[in-house]
Amino acid sequence: MFDGFNVPESNTTYCPNQFFDVCLPNYSRGVVRLVGYMLRRTLGWCDSEGEPQEAQIQISYSEICEKVGISRPRIKDAVRDAIHGRFIRCIKKGTPGNEDGQGNSATYELRWDKSGTYNKQPETFRGFFEKSGNRTYIPNEFFDVCVRKEPLSVVKIVGAVARLSIGFETKQGHRRNKIAVSFSHFRRYSKIRNRGNLAASIQRAIEKNYILQLREGNFTQNRTEQRANVFSLKWRVVTKRNQKLSSAEYLAERNRKEDEWLQKNGGSNKKVPEEQLQKGTRIEIKLEKLSRSKTREKEELNFGQSEDTTYIRNSKTLARGLKEKRKVNRPFKCSTWAEQFEMLERLDGVLSDRISNVLNWYIEHIGKPFVPEAFSARGFRNKFLQIEDAMMKRYGGINPVEISKDAEWIVDRIFAFEHVPFSKEQLSNAVQNSLDAYRAFRTKLLNIENLQVEDRIHRLAAYLVASIPQSCEYIETWIRKVIQMLNRPNNGKGCGFNFQSYITFSMDMPDFQEMLKQITISYGETLEMLSEVILCTQNEPKTR
């Protein structure tokens, strides 16, 4: 996870302020990424005389895809708009490859305005201000991480904080390190009209550690007591151990987070000696001899709202299977096992249906060759990916699919920026299946306009279609998140894990469901109406 910008003592780009005043608020994400990349390449590296090492940059379409973060179908529009907006100029046009595969890439350079006038309006902008002043030392991570990876709305928020804080210089030559910004000021500067989207973008920028809220605003009818929120860029805290966590450190961090989560949810992760277990806090694995009423009396169900929960049922299924197949007769605490199944779903992001399928298969095949052994809920959670991989191999592994250009582009980017412990074929199949599933859901949302349902459902479905991220952007972000999780210890790395079976997109994923809820709330609609929209994507009501 991004942990803040480097303190601007080095590794900075001396960026013209017009990038924040003209380009960022008024142009598309493709233009912003392309111009930001040109500024980073041109002004991020200078020689001993202070001159740019690369005033003219030759770049191919494939480089724009990999290094700039623009999908191939959008490159032409982004280059055209950047040239028409007078941010860059084309020095040499590219030529397509011939039969021998030889072609020339186009060459571009930044466009500078020698008139000495600082223009802030797109209509009068003629190039970046060439004379001294009106520039800011911007951390390179802003261009390398934020601009290239985040949605345009988030980049606008981070850019606004940077421009309004360190982008202004006092008469004494000092720079602000924080700024009081009202919600309306953010809205005017970023030109994000929807207040819900603006609030969500500010919250995402805070959660991603790009900005820091130093003081919360106060909005009352008494004008003398009103005050705006105070923001600053999030600066990285430099320590002697500014490095990635080792395996032992990660496990300690994971245990700490689990303890915090358990305390928050009223559970306990401490092992209790056998003699300290009271009659009402454990159950021996003799479920078939206990009636339902006696089971209720013997089990301590302080986890969940009732006995009949998925986590409790999974605990009983695993306990019964261990007794029948492996003759494990030791007592177990049902609520503690249920906590592990809930953490597998909520903390590890595994869908409940997937957990049930793997669990049922494991109980059926436990003890057979090449099936990992787990004799507790914690062991099942830690070996879940290995067990699932054994299941997938038994059913024949990966089915080959036709890989699209978009999937190839995502795969190339992931291999360029992440350590992928799987083959390119596995990753390509996973990406393609995820793209197909995501686009299928989006198509179902589009088809709602042809159904005989309430107008509110039509309007919310149209808003969801316009608000959810593009398929390539969302799938790439999701898969990177999964890879980062799988690279952690005890997550099945190096065990021949079937990657495709794990990350194929589903609309039931908790992260995706939460995103739909946030979009619905920002639109001002109820979650009950969102449920109606989801129901329309699953069923086939009559068309108009």
Automatic annotation (TrEMBL):
Name assigned to this protein: Uncharacterized protein
Source species of the chain: viral metagenome
